[in-house]
Amino acid sequence: MKKITKQLLFILIIIIAFIGVIIISQFYIKEQHKDVFEHTGKNIEKIQFKGAVMDSKIVKHGGRQYGIVCLKLDYSNIDNFYVFNESACLKIKDGKAIMSIGFVMQNEAKVKYIEVNMHGDKKERYFKEGGEVDEYEMTLASNGIIESDIKFCNE
């Protein structure tokens, strides 16, 4: 084979390997989320809610900062719900929801509004000051917080 042909073949193999890694990682991520939903023992993947952040706090565990928010719900398809374990954290009661928003960096814009699974797409959307929107796969993850951290929000 000519040198150019060998180089093109090598590049093609690298591209195919890269695409394979992407496909495998996407499959793995979906399986992880499936495991999270199954592990909670409750059917959280059908929950839908949205609301404005009325209170928030930062807690520190293991040298990292995690955010917890209290929402005044504009909509929820469930009136009362509670799950807290190593995989998930959500409390819905009396028109309010408490949830973890994960690792928070120091200068990050504050979250003002949250939508969870509103289009049945299993997405969490965080609307921040300044119009930025972060979108993630729906996990309702506890993100390193402990159960006593969620005892706020004018309970």
Description:
This protein has 155 residues and is an alpha+beta fold. It has an 8-stranded antiparallel beta sheet, with no helix packed on it. A hairpin with a 6-residue loop joins strand 6 and strand 7 (123-128). The mean pLDDT is 85. It is elongated and about 75 Å long. Helices cover 24% and strands 39% of the residues. The protein has one helix at residues 3-39, and strands at 49-61, 64-76, 81-84, 89-93, 96-103, 111-116, 123-128, 133-137.
Topology:
Blueprint: H1 3-39, E1 49-61, E2 64-76, E3 81-84, E4 89-93, E5 96-103, E6 111-116, E7 123-128, E8 133-137
Antiparallel strand pairs: 1-2, 1-6, 2-5, 3-4, 4-5, 6-7, 7-8
Q: Using DSSP, what is the number of strands?
A: 8
Strand order of the largest sheet: 3-4-5-2-1-6-7-8
Main β sheet profile:
8 strands, antiparallel
Helix content: 10-25%
Class by helix and strand content?
alpha+beta
Q: What's the tally of helices?
A: 1
Mean pLDDT: 85
- Compute the separation of the termini in Å: 74 Å
How would you describe the shape? elongated
Encode the helix/strand succession as letters.
Answer: HEEEEEEEE
Descriptive terms for the model:
155 residues; alpha+beta; eight-stranded antiparallel sheet; 1 helix; 8 strands; 24% helix
Structure described in brief:
Helices cover 24% and strands 39% of the residues. It is of the alpha+beta class and 155 residues long.
